[in-house]
Amino acid sequence: MDRPISTTVHVEHSAKSFAIIDDFISLRPALRGRDTRQVHLTIQIAAEESPGLELDSLKQDLLAADELRSAAIESRTGLPTGGMGPILETLLISFASGGVGVALVEGVFGWLRSRPAGITVKFSNGDRSVEVDDRTARDPAAVIALLQALDVIESGPRGK
């Protein structure tokens, strides 16, 4: 039996925004249980001050989310590819694609909206990567575009 899903998004009042939200909401039931590929995302944070503390704050928020219980979330510290540059702090997140991916992006966007300006979150899935900031996190179309760009969901709404 499917549980009701509640979705909260910030919208500007326009027909286009409501159509985007309708597309996003129509994806939610179709995503659960249909696609069982394993997805391995990395998340890195760029912040003017204390990116490590911001990453830890994000990790704690994600670990507290019921929708992400099935996801494996680990912190890693290391050098960038090639061994040159600043030490990178990264979250590694593994999950079966679909609803968990949607919940993950919603969780990161919600966390980002609550943080001070100037924080950028970089999502990577293999050779694909997308960067978002506090402005992007307020755009419902960005949620769908991010999921599609990272190959966490297929392009366009699926059948209901």
TrEMBL record:
The chain crosses the membrane at residues 91-112. It comes from the Bacteria. Keywords: Membrane, Transmembrane, Transmembrane helix. This is Uncharacterized protein.
